[in-house]
Write a structure and sequence with these properties.
Layout (H helix, E strand, L loop, with lengths): L1 E2 L4 E4 L6 E5 L2 E2 L7 H13 L6 E8 L5 E7 L6 H7 L4 E2 L9 H13 L13
Parallel strand pairs: 3-6
Antiparallel strand pairs: 1-2, 2-3, 4-7, 5-6
């Protein structure tokens, strides 16, 4: 398994590798901010090389890449939701319908209230 950015991984279940994007969330882009790098690092920490995961495919992106909730074997919490809970991704309201939108919205609101990750005030603001 290889992490490409804060939302895309390459998995090799049996044979040829393929890309999977985490469904239902919108992490910051890598070149835009340190938050993008933090989202990628968090995803790498959650998905160690060789880790076993369950992919719950939700749909396909316009470019044909699978969109899935990714859950480590032995866990009940999708990594997608974990990233929203710690403020490293926001709910993708345009593509959230296949996921439990209520749970993702609650996680995002909690991260905002606690000013985690993306919701942390910029330096110099209050």
């Amino acid at each position: 398994m290889k992490v490409l950015d804060g939302r895309t991984i390459v998995v090799t279940p049996y044979g040829d590798p393929f890309k999977v994007r985490l469904a239902c969330l919108r992490p910051p882009q890598l070149p835009q901010s340190s938050s993008g790098l933090a989202a990628k690092a968090a995803l790498e920490a959650l998905l160690q090389p060789g880790a076993w995961v369950t992919l719950s495919t939700r749909s396909k992106a316009a470019d044909g890449v699978e969109l899935a909730e990714i859950t480590p074997v032995g866990s009940r919490v999708p990594i997608n939701l974990s990233l929203v809970q710690v403020g490293l991704a926001a709910l993708d309201r345009q593509a959230a319908s296949p996921c439990n939108q209520e749970i993702y919205q609650e996680a995002e609101m909690r991260a905002q209230a606690l000013q985690l990750g993306l919701w942390r005030p910029s330096p110099g603001t209050r």
